[in-house]
Amino acid sequence: MTARGESPRVVAVIGSTGVSGAAICRALLATEPIRQVIALGTVRPPVPGVTLRRVDVTDASLAGALRGVQALVYAPSETDQQPDRAQRRANEVGVSVALMAAAAAGVRQVVLVSSAQVYGAAADNPVPLPEDQQILATADGTVAELLELERLAYAVDQAYPQTDVCVLRPAWLLAPGLPNPANGLLDGPRLLVVRGTQPHWQFCHVDDLAAAVATAVTTRMSGPATVGSDGWIDQSEVQRVLRRRPLELPAAIAFGTAARLHSIGVTSSPSELAYLVYPWVVGSERLRDAGWKPTFSNVEALTDYADGRPARGYRLPVDPKGATAATAAAGATVALIGTAALVRRARKRRASGK
Q1: Residue 151 backbone phi and psi in degrees, to 5
Q2: Is residue 340 within 8 Å of residue 192, measured between CB atoms?
Q3: CA distances from 274 to 119, 156, 179, 278, 333 (A)
Q4: Where are the alpha helices (DSSP H) in the chain?
Q5: For the chain, does the N or the C end have fewer beta carbons within 10 angstroms?
Q6: How far apart, in Å, are the Cα atoms of 269 and each of 239, 242, 260?
Q7: 37 touches 51 (CB < 8 A)
Q8: Which of 213-217, 233-237, 299-303, 318-322 comes out lowest in average pLDDT?
Q9: 332-352 vs 251-263: helix crossing angle, rounded to 10
Q10: Rounded to whole angstroms, how far apart are CA atoms 292 and 301?
């Protein structure tokens, strides 16, 4: 058993097959004094040198698979689709089982990857947000799952003081091949802009997140810590890197349409747009003090994602039913742009008398 203050030598990872999880495994394997990285699950991750322990990570038998493990990392779940209520519930159960199993098995540290979205996006947010900033996010959509994850982490941290719990809160994660980045805000034929706003775009490259996980593990970090590239970039820089034009909508139309699309199940939450409008920049002070620093700037992270993103042929819908089907998986931006296209077409038809 690792004594308090010593760095762990055996680290287990849940979620190792995703883009983020695989990067975390690679970073841990390259970090001293870690000697073994164990993937927990049923599929071997695409990382040479990782040991696979086949186990259902949502079952209580997970505790037995944690024998000899001193630190457990729970990587973020990744999917092309916005998670529905059933999937969010399954993810919450998985986190709860992992936390309880780690405590029962005597694992000394758990590192959970959450998101800086939990702070909420607000007009009066300081830039950057301090890590002890009050959590004020609206509990709906994907953020509801993150808030529940953090609630579970806090409960285990209080109930089992022998297990340190560290929660990492990255900015928007980016990497080639990462599905549904920024909750779909970077997808679509045009980039949505809410009129009269100046977005603060901040990203976190998956490799920088992986290095942050390794730092948190080797320094036995506990409590919350934020992760992100230095500072932020503005809308024009995002448009330049992605080589796409903006579509500007008045705030009343953007938020009103998002709410209506949410009511019919097209988008997961109308509050997603707040993260496009208001600042939620983080400074990563605790990790920097521990020796970590980002290797990707915001522009470099966005460029790496854009260069590795598969080409997508977007087709705007031709009728409202088509809009619902085509945009359901793509997030608020694509849905709003598709709806705006329908409105423009309807206006043109009326103007031409057709």
Answers
A1: -65, -45
A2: no
A3: 12, 31, 21, 6, 12
A4: 19-29, 62-65, 85-105, 141-159, 206-218, 235-242, 251-263, 274-277, 285-289, 298-308, 320-327, 332-352
A5: C
A6: 24, 25, 10
A7: yes
A8: 318-322
A9: 110
A10: 17
Q: Helix 85-105 and helix 141-159: axis angle, to 10°? A: 20
Contact 155, 110 (CB under 8 A): no
Both tokens assigned to 144: 């509801």
In this structure, what token pair is assigned to residue 258?
A: 């998002």
Amino acid at 174: L
Q: Strands 10-14 and 36-41, how do they pair?
A: parallel
Q: Binning pLDDT at 50, 70 and 90, where does residue 204 land? A: very high
CA distance 309 to 178: 8
Q: Is the dihedral of CA 291, 292, 298, 303 positive or negative?
A: positive
Angle 266-114-221 from CA coordinates, rounded to 5°: 180
Query: What is the pTM (predicted TM-score) of this model?
Result: 0.87
Render pLDDT for 269-314 as a digit per residue (tens, 0 to 9): 667 888 999 999 999 999 999 999 999 999 999 999 999 865 443 3
Rounded to whole angstroms, how far apart are CA atoms 336 and 257? 7
How many CA atoms within 13 Å lie on the side-chain side of 104?
Answer: 13
If one counts every other C-beta atom within 10 angstroms of the C-beta of residue 195, the result is 11
Neighbours of 288 (CB within 10 A): 14
Q: Which residue has the tokens 């809009």?
A: 323
